[in-house]
Amino acid sequence: MEFGRILTAMVTPFDSEGKIDWQGVEKVVEHLILTGSEGLVIAGTTGESPTLTTEEKLKLFQRTAEISGRRVPVIAGTGTNDTGYSTALTEKASKLGIDGIMAVTPYYNKPSQEGMYEHFKAIASATTLPVMVYNIPGRCIINLQAETMIKLAGIPNITSVKEASGSLDQISHIIASTPEHFAVYSGDDSMTLPIMSVGGHGVVSVAAHIAGHELREMVQAFSEGSVEHASAIHRSLLPKMKACFIAPNPAPVKAMLEQQGIISRDTRLPMLPLTDAEIKQLEQWFSLA
């Protein structure tokens, strides 16, 4: 399946009691589709997945797929540092009308490259859906090396990678050494255009919650050969992209969505919602855009 070029790592709305705000879920899905998201990644880091129970994740996958109604692909975040749990969750999620799986590199326990290969192979074997691997050494400590990713790309339903290593050398090597249909996505908003310039496919974005139209215009302009226009949009978006991370993600994005009347800024511990003073600082960053 073609997931699209602009995928959004969707926030999970909560109410003041810490429960999932299901009306808010519908509002966010509609907002993202309306503002240019071509696919939705559910229960990733931005979705505060470590705080979600298995039952909540499964209900969130199913409900998002129902709201989307096949308008955009829905990709379920099922990866953890426990291979058995990840494969079981992947198998259950695959029965809920979703369109793909995203699995992060195992965090904390620091497996070897071969251990990671076997981990992702097991997840892929638990589903017939396309699987996106997520490499983010900054959070998981370990780096899924290019050669390991290239080997994983030989598994038929591992069709893409979300790369947040920050290394254009590594990313370029993956792009050059994987099949033409294999898609490399930027895992950092600010790296979207640089990664596309070396053959990347698109982005799994946080900033698309509040700058979806601009991101879509940038990606489209680059794809059509309007490099100077795409570069100008990239530069204008950098303050907004930076603003999304003035506090631990997803608190800033949730605060901006609250400002738009879409959801509340509420998070689950250990994440904290932005204070009023922090929101004023956030607005100053946006005034720079």
From TrEMBL:
Its main location: cytoplasm. One of its GO terms (cellular component) is cytosol. Keywords: Amino-acid biosynthesis, Cytoplasm, Diaminopimelate biosynthesis, Lyase, Lysine biosynthesis, Schiff base. The active site is at 134 (proton donor/acceptor), 162 (schiff-base intermediate with substrate). It catalyses: L-aspartate 4-semialdehyde + pyruvate = (2S,4S)-4-hydroxy-2,3,4,5-tetrahydrodipicolinate + H2O + H(+). Pyruvate binds at residues 46, 204. It is found in: Cytoplasm. Its EC number is 4.3.3.7. The keyword Amino-acid biosynthesis applies. GO terms for biological process: diaminopimelate biosynthetic process; lysine biosynthetic process via diaminopimelate. One of its GO terms (molecular function) is 4-hydroxy-tetrahydrodipicolinate synthase activity. Pathway: Amino-acid biosynthesis; L-lysine biosynthesis via DAP pathway; (S)-tetrahydrodipicolinate from L-aspartate: step 3/4. It comes from the Bacteria. The record marks 45, 108 as: Part of a proton relay during catalysis. HAMAP family: DapA. Belongs to the DapA family. Catalyzes the condensation of (S)-aspartate-beta-semialdehyde [(S)-ASA] and pyruvate to 4-hydroxy-tetrahydrodipicolinate (HTPA). Homotetramer; dimer of dimers. PANTHER family: 4-HYDROXY-2-OXOGLUTARATE ALDOLASE, MITOCHONDRIAL, DIHYDRODIPICOLINATE SYNTHASE. This is 4-hydroxy-tetrahydrodipicolinate synthase.
